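Researcher: I'm preparing a figure for a lab meeting and need a structural model of a single chain. I don't have an experimental structure, so a prediction will have to do for now. The sequence is pasted below. Please return the structure as tokens so I can convert it later.
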Amino acid sequence: MTDIQAEVAGPALTKKAAERSKMTREGFTISPWLYLAPALILLMIWTYIPLAETFRLSFYQWNMLPTSPQRFVGLLNYQRLLALPEMRNALWNTLCYTIGLFPMSVIIPLFVAIWTQDLGGRARTIYRSMIFVPMIIAPVVAAVLWRWLLNEDQGLVTLALDSLGLGRVGFLTDPLYALPTLTWITGWKLIGFSTLLFSAANAGINPSYIEAARIDGASRWRIICDIRLPLLSPTILLLSMMTVLFGAQWSFAYINVLTNGGPLKSTTNIFYLLWEYGFQTLSAGWSSAAGMIAFAGFAVLAAMCMWLTKRFAFYDN
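Model: Understood. Here is the structure written out token by token.
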């Protein structure tokens, strides 16, 4: 910088330094909080106030009628819920939903995204369209479609199995098959979403890494193991966390439409159970206690997933 430039820029630099010094001395400015205020207010109204009210109601007995008094019962709701066999069955089914969804929300989409990475032009467009179609179908419409396909008397799948000599299967009426069937339908909806995320993450990998590995003679399998999978680890862990936290919740619509929690409570998970307590038996205390148990359990799982993500995710640059 010449002497003339220094003389011209001097006052401006001094003014900026004075402004920064003034902001530091003040230590607090209201402008960021004004920008955040709408989001914080909505978050408070729709999340934290209902959560606090649910926690309070979990210690009361109340039938949700405005004229009915709320009776304080302490921890009695929690004790009775944990002693109920249907509560333990719902927690076990929730675990089964979560584990059963992993192949369709993580493993198969990861395989499809890597396998189709080298496709080009029209073939890639066609495969992406076909695999994403289930995601844009409304859950109730998808449930009605699958109920028609799996109908024990006239369903196409049942008739096909019968023609092959395998007999008729009660996919939605037999307790042995109902839960795997609902897990399959929920996973069928998720495959397109997960594949799209994996495809986007796979396309974002720096191609110079792949080219350098190919020049060094690395096989496609070594490229997948040593380059693609490590760089896809953040997406793998993100989808794994979403499956753990939301998988059983995503199955609620199919339980409600297809089985109503049956047969013999074989498809009831924790989310359907707390809905039953709240809106069928009008037991606000039991519903709130079941909701708080689910919240506490999933909060621990979320903390573990966040730790795993920070520990094992590998980020380029």
